[in-house]
Structure formats: C-alpha cells, structure tokens
Amino acid sequence: MRxxxxxxxxxxxxxxxxxxxxxxxxxxxxxxICGLAFLSTHSPLVLAWFGLTWATGVLEALLGRxxxxxxxxxxxxxxxxxxxxLSALTYSSIxxxxxxxxxxxxxxxxxxxxxxxxxLNNAVQAAGSRLATLSLVIxxxxxxxxxxxxxxxxxxxxMLGDTVLLALGGVAFTLFIVxxxxxxxxxxxxxxxxxxxxxxxxxxWRMVFDSSPMALIxxxxxxxxxxxxxxxxxxARLGDIARALYDTAEDVYQDAPLLEANEAARGLxxxxxxxxxxxxxxxxxxxxxxxxxxADGTIPPFDTELVxxxxxxxxxxxxxRLTAGLGAPWSLCLASYLDVTEAHRVARAxxxxxxxxxxxNRAKSDFLAVMSHEIRTPLNGVLGMAQAMDMDPLxxxxxxxxxxxxxxxxxxxxxxDDLLDISRIEAGRLTLETQDFDLRAVAEGAHAxxxxxxxxxxxxxxxDIDPAVxxxxxxxxxxxxxxxxxxxxxxxxxxxxxxxxxxxxxSAAGVRFEVADTGIGIAPDRVARLFEKFVQADVSxxxxxxxxxxxxxxxxxxxxxxxxxxxxxxxxxxGSTFALELPLRQVERAASPPxxxxxxxxxxxxxxxxxxxxxxxxxxxxxxxxxxxxDLDPTIVENGAEAVRAWESAHWDLILMDVxxxxxDGPTATMTIRAREAVLGRPRTPILAVTAxxxxxxxxxxxxxxxxxxxxxxxxxxxxxxxxxxxxxxAEIEAERRAAG
Length: 741
Prior knowledge:
Strand content: 15-25%
Structural class: alpha/beta
Strand order of the largest sheet: 2-1-6-5-4-3
Distance between the termini: 105 Å
Radius of gyration: 55 Å
Shape: elongated
C-alpha cells in the first residue's frame, strides 16, 4: 500500500513537471483551436475563451512549480490539482461556444468530437494518478455528458430520448477512458520498474566487470556460432569442426570480435585489441575445450603462456563461457584470464626440489651401494680369516684375541646392515618375505645370542613363552628376529644390575613381545624422540655405550611395514619396557621339527672340482683358507673371461663367481656360460654369486643372469657351506630330504 501511494505521488509530480515544461506548446495549441473556431463561428466569445485559457494556463504553471519545489507535501498537491482542473475546464469550454453558434446539431457533433479527444488525451497524461485523473478527465467528461442538454438549450431540435442516450454515451466513454488510463498507467509502471531493474542489473554487472581483479573480456560470438552451425554434421564435434575451419587465433578473433575489456584485462594485455601472443598450444586448447564444453556453455579452464608486447612471458589460466542471447544461442563469449605465473613458478620450484631430493636420494643409494661393497671387501678378509683360524687349534689367549676380532667385525657388519636398512626404508624399497616359521625357535635364537653377555654382567636373563604361541606363524621371520634382537640388545646394554626379561604371549592383534629391564631408564622428554634416526635417550650415551641411534628407528619402521606398532614405558633409574604388537597369523598345523643342517660331508665324500673367480688377492686367500677346512683346493681365476675359458676347458662341480671384476664381470660370465650350455648340450653347472653387493635389486639381477644363489660378503662359513651343499645336491634328493625333515 505504501508503495502504491508513492507511485501515485510520483505519477502526479511527473505529470505536473511535463505540463509545466509544455505550457508554451499548449498555448500554441489553444491559439490554433481559437483560429479554427473563429473561422467556423465568427463569434467574439472565441477570443474571450482564448484569454481565459491563457490565464488558467499561467495559474496552473505557477501552482505546478510550487509542487515541484516542495515534493511530497499534500497541500501544494491539492492546490495544484485545482489549477489543473480549472485549466482543463477552460480548455474544454470551447465546446460551449461551438454549440451556441450552431443550432442545427452540427455544433453538438463538433463539440462531442473535441470533448472526446480532450478527455482521451488528458486520460493518457494522467498516467493512472487518481488526483491527476480527477483534475484533467472529469471536467471534459462532465461537459461531454452535459453537451446534449446545452445543445437543447441552444435551440437544437433533439428528442428527449436522444438527449438521454447521448448523455449515457458520454458516461460510458468517460468510464472507458478512466479504465484505459489506469491500465496504461499500470503497464507503464511495470515497464518503468523493469527498466529500473534492468538498469540496476546492468549497473551491478558494470561494477563487477570493471572492478574485478580478474582480467575479463567480452567477445561477440554470433558469427562464430553461425559458421560452426552451418558446418555441423551428425556425430561431429564442435572443436574438430573449428580446428578444420581456423588456422590461427587471429582467424577466431575475426569471427568473435572483441566488445569490451575491463581494466585488469587492459593491464594484462599490453595491446588492447591484439590480445597478446599466446603459445602454440593455445588454439588446440580452445578446440579441445569446445569438444568438452558442458550444457551451460562453459569450456574447461586451461593454462597457457602469454608473451606480452614488452617481451614479458606470463602464464595465464583461461576460462571461456558462451552465453545465449535474444534469438542467438551464442551471443557473447565471456573470457576470464587469471595470471598464475607465480603459482607455476612455485610448482616448478617444488618439482625441481623434488627432483633434486630424488637425485640426492639416488646418489645416497649409489654411495651406500659403493660403500657397502668397499667395506664388505676388507671385512671379508677380517672375518673370513678369523673364521678359518677359529677352526684351527689355538691357545686360550689367542682364542680370546680372535673372539675380539670376530666381535668387532660383527659390530661393524651390524652397523653396515643398519645403514642399508635405513636406505631401503627411505627409498621405499623395504620388502618383506612372508613364510611359515616357528615363532618359539625365533625367540629362543634371539634370546640365546645374548646369554653370554648377560651372564658376563651377572644379570638375570629370562625368557617366558606362552604355550599359546607355540607352532608355526606366517610372517617375515628374519625381520621379527631383527626387531626382537635389537630390543634385547638394548636391554642388556643399558642394564648394569638386576634383570632383563623377555615375554611372548598371544594378543588380540596376533602376538605381543615384551622386553623389560631394570636399567638406566629414559627421561620423559626423550621418549617422544627415541624412535628418530641418530637419536639416543642421552647425548652422553654414545660415549658410554656406543651405537648410532639407528636401531630403534629401524625397529619402528619394520614394525610399521609388518602392520604392527612398538611402544615404550620408562622412567629414569627405573628401567624400561618395550612392547611390540605384530598382527601375525598362526598356521593351523603342528610345527615340524627343525631339519638338521646339511653336513659338509656332502662336499668331502667325493673329490669336488671347484672353480672360483675372484680378483681381490685378500678374498682369494680367505676363500682358499675356508675351503681348505673341507679339504677342497679350488682353482682360482681373476676375472669373468678367464672363468669362461676355464669352464670351456674342463668339467666343474661348482663355480663361485665374484660380481665386480675387470675384463668381464660375474653376471656377464654367467650368462655366457648358460648360453653355451644350451648350445653345446652340457649339463648345468651350479654357479653361486659371491659378492659384497647385496641390495634387493642387485640380488634379483644376479638370479636373472642365471646364478643359482648368492653368498654375501663378508663370508660366513656356515652360509658358505650350506649354499654349496644346496647347490651340489640333486633336486630330487633335496626334495626327499626336505620331505623327510
């Protein structure tokens, strides 16, 4: 209701403003009517009418200016309405002169036409304002109704029925023009409001378009649509059609001319009309985008390189949207360009950093591989000769000294293995070997390895195994033994008095291991970092106890790889308890008794011919010393080429092949021998790789070359003899032995 009243007031004021501005035009119209009426009637009353009309017009203009000077006030509006009414009445009173001057009815006809025209014109001007309609329409309408009566008074010969009928017609016409005025006013207001809404929407669009920080450009896409539509065939894609139609981006711009660009676009593109130079893939990206365009006309965004006129290269993300218009499916193409140069720079820097990190990781892996080989080679001499001497009769003092050599070499081997494990873990190359194993035997073996050390420190060293875990379990036995051994080693190392206890029990997840000690304990603020690499519970621990701080870090990574978790509870001076939960699965069958280890008699019961390829003099001495324990005298050559020639010249029961050798390496020599075996039809000669390169991918390459097994350096006499036994034992005998075991 409030809005309706405001609209009425606005309509009345607009009418007053228009009539005030058109006052002189109405005076001219009145003068024209005066002249015509005078020629028709020759009555001096016409001149009087003109003067009265001019006077009321002046009065209307004065009252109208007052309304415009004080908008919204009711008093001035009502006074102005009276002025409008007087002006309309005097303007319409010309019909009285016409009726009085013609007594034959012609005056009535002319008066009726004039009054209808005036009433209709005033109704249109009123524009639905009730106050304006009352002021402008009622006076001529009243004269229209009264015209028949005035004609009768003037002497016209009219019947009473005709007079009444003409009066009723005047009433009907008055109602008609009032309704027409109201309808026209409503329609005009609706159009005005629609125009205001459109103008407001356009204003908002202009604000968004011009003020957007993103570069925005509008193209006229009608011609582009027409050309593509004319060439469209069933099954054809828009992008493929456009690719055949346009050779350059400039060709596309000709069919989609630029309409306008905002300030950000003008800043991004140094040439306003040229749009800059895009990379060669820009046009193909548009074509592919047309093929992938969705139902809303949106083309998937793509990144491209832009070379500005000043030579600067930028990377922009382009987003295109084709919008529909009146009678045209594509009337506009709105293109947005977002400068993503910095984002690409950051992403490129991250890629380069990642590549550098990967390269550094590869370099580290290569370094570790080389160092592993170089360290294992002298260690092979130390530990190999120590094992050979251990088999000879020695005095107690010499045997003690030999034990120190072996233990020191073993500690160095453990350190090397830890470093290799960390490298595998960080490179994501850690692999697990899943097999059935006797968990009790693994635990007893790990415990037995530290009995002597615990006894030397007078520690109570117990092993408690829940009968529920007896039997076979599926998992990686070597990794389980490694983690358990590391925890037991730490417990014994950091405990000076009291006890170290090892417990195994079944848990909801699988198996729970606990290693508890009464040692030095760990401060709470150090527990959180205990499993980090190269971190120990106390910085002074390295001096007092030795070690690198890698053991627990490796244990945690191995536990995670096996799906388990390791936790610790400790307090300074009160000892520590490490708990290990592993989701192992028990195998539902009884554990077989452990098979007896193959005795070296299988190697000594017949005269074996052993060929060994080894370029290092120390390693040749170690190999000779160890094989001498079996009364074997191997023939040793210094490279792979000599090994091939030796194989061709004689029959050998076994070949021990080094990997890295001059002239020809071990894998190449092995592949050569296997190829010639196939050509000559000679039986397969067992070949064992003897190498310090023992990473997982290296072991796989040796087997792929045709080697039967790998013996790692430093040589372990037990591993060496076992591998030799397995290599020379026929497969069917080995199968029978395993079945019997």
